[in-house]
Design a protein that fits this description.
Homodimer. Keywords: FAD, Flavoprotein, Oxidoreductase. One of its GO terms (biological process) is fatty acid beta-oxidation using acyl-CoA dehydrogenase. The protein is α+β, with helices and mostly antiparallel strands. The chain has three domains: 89 residues, no CATH class; 109 residues, Butyryl-CoA Dehydrogenase, subunit A, domain 2; 153 residues, Butyryl-CoA Dehydrogenase, subunit A, domain 3 (Up-down Bundle). Helix 5 runs antiparallel to helix 6. The radius of gyration is 21 Å and the shape is globular. The chain starts with 5 loop residues before the first helix and ends with a helix. The model has no long low-confidence stretch (mean pLDDT 94).
Length: 392
């Protein structure tokens, strides 16, 4: 990716940060922030997005001509959008839409981009990515080769049957990317939502609450999709999944780093103002050292994100690099969020600040887009392969 240059990207990032801090942070007290524990209401999302358009920060990582910022440029923008859990929703940099836009931009045909991508970039619609399947069905989770959902051609259509689980934002989405397996291998299809053949069985109660629509279990019953709505080629679905997931993992790191930075700000202010045992909390080594350790983790996370983004910008798929970033950054952010809660004591586990929610969101982040342990295992296999090549 050529991008626009870091100076211009930082200008965009500054506008995003000002918008999030001045306009979006006050919404954190809005009663529409959680609908039955499953993310902000559609009304609230569209209200915030109207203000983002007016401020010129809607989908800021995608330029008016359709070109995408480089990954390094995207990082400085997405980190700022994540200063509030509502920021990515308002600015349209949130998962799964951000990853779906990236995939469509890379793989979609001109007609598919016009029909499906355009409404996502404008922020008029949300999307869902249907890949993960219920463990009870023996379906695909961290191992996509276990996929049970099937598709087969029928005239000028494909027919899809199966069940999916943990489908983020399925409730309320208008664009879906459905993954299924054919005799040739994995395939992806673009579908308009809602569709009577795609039925939400239930929305799960999960620890996180930032994503509208929550995470759903979905039944797909004889879904008929026109052949021209297959994304890319039949049998190439796993390859396309990596096109999406490598940068998407990194984008999660960017957004939640913004949340960790905000938590550190709140915890620091608390520790500097709150007194105990005759002095400010920050003057107690047990507290001050936690904040110092957080600052180290923040700076290391920034460096890891920048390094991985640079690899992706070279045109390399960067699967190993994104796995390393996912592990290192998600674990660092968990340490930061946990220490912020600890510094703030009872206030830290209450809803009086956003710190408690960021703690919950980061805890979930250590699992989605691949748990830490799966990424470590994948890297260990690569280490073994590289050794074998170097030592035939």
């Amino acid at each position: 990716m050529s991008g626009i240059g870091m100076e211009k990207a930082l200008e965009i990032a500054d506008r995003v940060e000002a918008f999030v801090r001045e306009v979006i942070v006050p919404y954190e007290r809005d009663p529409r922030i959680e609908v039955h524990g499953h993310g902000p209401s559609e009304e609230l999302i569209m209200e915030m997005r109207d203000k983002a358009r007016a401020a010129g920060v809607m989908t800021p990582h995608i330029l008016p001509d359709g070109n995408h910022l480089s990954q390094r440029e995207t990082a400085v923008v997405l980190i700022r959008s994540g200063l509030s859990p509502l920021g990515p929703l308002a600015c349209n940099t949130m998962a799964p839409d951000e990853g779906n836009m990236y995939l469509l931009g890379k793989v979609g045909s001109p007609e598919q981009k016009q029909r499906f991508l355009k409404q996502l970039v404008s922020g008029e619609a949300r999307s869902a990515f249907f890949m993960t399947e219920p463990a009870s069905d023996g379906g695909a989770g961290s191992d996509p080769s276990m996929m049970q959902t099937t598709c087969h051609p029928d005239g000028n259509h494909w027919v899809i049957n199966g069940r999916k689980a943990f489908i983020t934002g399925a409730q309320g989405a208008r664009v879906g990317i459905v993954m299924a397996k054919s005799t040739e291998g994995a395939c992806m299809f673009l579908v308009d939502l809602p569709n009577p053949a795609i039925r939400i069985e239930r929305v799960l109660d999960t620890i996180d609450s930032s994503m509208p629509g929550g995470h759903a279990v979905v039944a797909i019953d004889n879904l008929r999709v026109p052949a021209d709505q297959m994304l890319g080629a039949s049998g190439e679905g796993f390859q396309y999944a990596q096109v999406r997931l490598s940068p998407a993992r990194l984008s999660h790191c960017m957004r939640w780093l913004g949340g960790a930075i905000r938590s550190q700000e709140i915890a620091t202010a608390y520790a500097c103002k709150r007194h105990a045992f005759g002095k400010p909390l920050v003057d107690h080594e047990g507290v001050g050292f936690m904040l110092a350790e957080n600052l180290i983790d923040i700076r290391q996370a920034e460096l890891m994100i920048d390094w991985c983004a640079g690899v992706l910008d070279t045109g390399s798929l960067g699967t190993a690099e994104s796995s390393m970033a996912k592990v290192a950054v998600s674990e660092a952010l968990m340490r930061i969020a946990d220490k912020c809660v600890q510094v703030m004591g009872g206030t830290g586990v209450s809803g009086d600040t956003i710190v408690e929610q960021i703690f919950r969101e980061v805890r979930a982040f250590r699992i989605y887009d691949g748990p830490t342990e799966v990424h470590k295992w994948s890297m260990a296999k690569k280490i073994k392969r590289d050794f074998a090549k170097a030592n035939p």
